Amino acid sequence: MSDYLKLNQANWDERAPLHAASPDYQAQMFVDDPRHLSEVVRFDLPLLGDISGLRGVHLQCHIGTDTLSLARLGARMTGLDFSPASLAEARSLAARTESAIEFVESDVYKACEVLPKGAFDLVYTGIGALCWLPSVDTWARNVSQLLKPGGRLFIREGHPMLWALDESREDALVVDLPYFERSEPLVWDDDSTYVSTDRPLKATVTHAWNHGLGEIVSALLKHGLDISGLVEHQSIPWEALPGQMRCDEQGEWHLQHAPWRLPLSYTLQAVKRLG
């Protein structure tokens, strides 16, 4: 296993039980209400459309709340993640909700070694996933290999322009980090996570990368997908820029002042070419 994978996996293994216990992930609401969907998937619904009957795979599924939501919309879902602790929480939630979801442990770059190629109608990637991958080209190749001809990729992700900002600045939007993909990772040392908890992490070091929007689109085109939709959003489902944002009733965060200045996330859809 690569060093970056070991570091990131240790970090996410620690985060998983904290996230599962946090009200932010609404695990108990899934148990109590068989119609409950995650806030992320509820946001996605207008663009996602009807997925009933589709065979889908959720890459980098974490503790499975979005995977479960997609299954509740009628898709036959598989979730894939590299974190054993995350998958333990995902399987527990699936069991508690009596949901027939398969969860598979793997690095996303090895997805085609553990999942059937050309078998999926839908590849779904939720928000906050691509930044943990060093090569968007390798990711796009795996997405293409998993999809059937005519199958669809759906991704909502943090905008690369947002990832390039200095989040420690509360007085201005300051571009201080790479927008484009680089071979060298951004190395972070942080004992906190994005849910409220009084338990500091011990595995604090993570490696991350940005990927420009053009790089993502070009990688998908290179590997046999055609872009069918691209929408930029003025919101993101966490307080990405502390001190500069407000939260709406749907749990989405917006810039407090002049939100039209900056795209915070985007939804991209692509279809694998026939033949």
CATH homologous group name: Vaccinia Virus protein VP39
CATH top level assignment: Alpha Beta
CATH architecture: 3-Layer(aba) Sandwich
Largest sheet: 7 strands, mixed
Number of domains: 1
Shape, principal axes of CA atoms = globular
Order of helices and strands: HHHEHEHEHEHEHEEHEEEE
Tally of individual helices: 9
What's the short story on this structure?
By secondary structure, the chain is an alpha/beta fold.
If you had to describe this structure to a student in words, what would you say it looks like?
By secondary structure, the protein is of the alpha/beta class. It has a single domain (3-272), classed as Vaccinia Virus protein VP39 (Rossmann fold, 3-Layer(aba) Sandwich). Helices cover 31% and strands 23% of the residues. It has 9 helices and 11 strands. It has a 7-stranded mixed beta sheet with strand order 3-2-1-4-5-11-8, with helices on both faces. It has a two-stranded antiparallel ribbon with strand order 6-7. A two-stranded antiparallel ribbon has the order 9-10. A hairpin with a 5-residue loop joins strand 9 (245-247) and strand 10 (253-255). The mean pLDDT is 96. Keywords: Methyltransferase, Transferase. InterPro entries: Methyltransf_12, SAM-dependent_MTases_sf. This is Class I SAM-dependent methyltransferase. One of its GO terms (biological process) is methylation. Residues 58-153 form the Methyltransferase type domain.
